[in-house]
Design goal:
alpha/beta, eight-stranded parallel beta sheet, elongated, binds phosphoenolpyruvate, binds manganese (II) ion
Length: 338
């Protein structure tokens, strides 16, 4: 159940509501927007039937949230402008934010070169995996701690916040100590211990859709993180497994407007993993932005031919520069900026 209050309700008014609700053993979560304040109540709603909530000063209405996800539901946020802040930038505002960088952090030199190159072209974040999930146990699986230290140094040098994957709940704090945003990869979308762990950290989370996850499962995975107190979740459509084998995955374009209607969380797209092919990255990026994506995460490598992972789908600096140039036109048509 959610209690909708006037935006100007005094802080002690909100405290009063929270105390009344929590006294019944329910948990609360408050979202303050531009036009209203929302108090989400979680637990046995029936108990609230005996509380004259509507007579509390400042309370406007009471609504039942019937979807299985509560905190992630569109109804929950007072308004969409809440967004998810990473460094000085915000996912979910007017600007589409682009995270760019290699699949894996390979060494400091290539990270610095990539950070400077993508930053100059307008990327908002630098990506790079230090802990890599690989299908084969014999493939390069990242520089781990050293990769994190490289990311932190490149962030300091370039000023770009960094997003990197956390693979294991045991590394969550370590990764959060170096990164500005924690990526939960497709293979871990339903790793519930990991979701709970990042839910307790104060770092924005980039949650990628599982290879064969429904959108409801994606939202319930977000709910795991949010129900632990971390409301800073950005969702990512990165392609799913279907019968088609011409491409690495099948990009589910319709997922973007569907999610935007269903949740207040920002939604971005990963055209690199969706297609697995460099030449498809630009068209899928334009389509995603036209469909309402709040941003993109794109793989960029100084020399894709020598990349230790995902070289086939990585853009070189020139390709990224063309992408950013042309993306502006699509963003503008969609009423957005890059
Ligand atoms: C990645 O971003 O490099 C990655 C492994 O992504 P996904 O989890 O979507 O496959
Ligand atoms: Mn990759």
């Amino acid at each position: 159940m959610i209690i909708v209050a006037r935006k100007d309700i005094a802080a002690d008014g909100l405290d009063h509501i929270r105390e009344r609700v929590e006294a019944l053993g329910l948990r609360t979560q408050i979202s303050i927007g531009e036009t209203s304040a929302i108090i989400g109540c979680f637990g046995d709603d029936a108990l609230l039937g005996h509380v004259p909530l509507l007579s509390i000063p400042g309370v406007d209405s009471i609504r039942q949230v019937i979807s299985p996800y509560k905190l992630a539901a569109r109804d929950f946020a007072a308004d969409r402008t809440t967004g998810v802040q990473v460094g000085s930038r915000k996912f979910g505002g007017k600007a589409c934010l682009v995270a760019a960088g290699p699949c894996s952090v390979e060494n400091e030199e290539m990270m610095k070169a990539t950070g400077h190159a993508v930053g100059m072209q307008g990327a908002a974040l630098l990506r790079g995996g230090a802990f890599k999930p690989r299908t084969s146990p014999y493939s390069f699986d990242g520089l781990k701690d050293e990769g994190l230290r490289i990311l932190a140094r490149v962030r300091d040098e370039t000023g770009l916040p960094v997003v990197t994957e956390v693979l294991d709940p045991r590394h969550a704090e370590l990764v959060a100590g170096h990164a500005d945003m924690l990526q939960i990869g497709a293979r871990n979308m339903q790793n519930f211990s990991l979701l709970r762990e990042v839910g307790q950290l104060h770092r924005p989370v980039l949650l990628k859709r599982g290879l064969s996850a429904t959108l409801k499962e994606l939202l319930l995975a977000a709910e795991y993180v949010m129900s632990r107190g971390n409301m800073q979740v950005v969702l990512c459509e990165r392609g799913i497994r279907t019968f088609g084998d011409e491409m690495r995955n099948t990009f589910d374009l319709a997922a973007i407007p569907w999610l935007k209607a269903e949740t207040h969380l920002p939604v971005i797209a990963d055209p690199s993993h969706a297609a697995g092919r460099r030449d498809l990255v630009a068209p899928l990026s334009y389509a995603a932005v036209a469909a309402g994506a709040d941003g993109l995460i794109v793989e960029v490598h100084p020399d894709p031919g020598t990349a230790l992972s995902d070289g086939d789908q990585s853009l070189d600096f020139e390709g990224f520069s063309r992408l950013m140039r042309d993306l502006k036109v699509f963003a503008e048509a969609a009423g957005r900026t890059v």
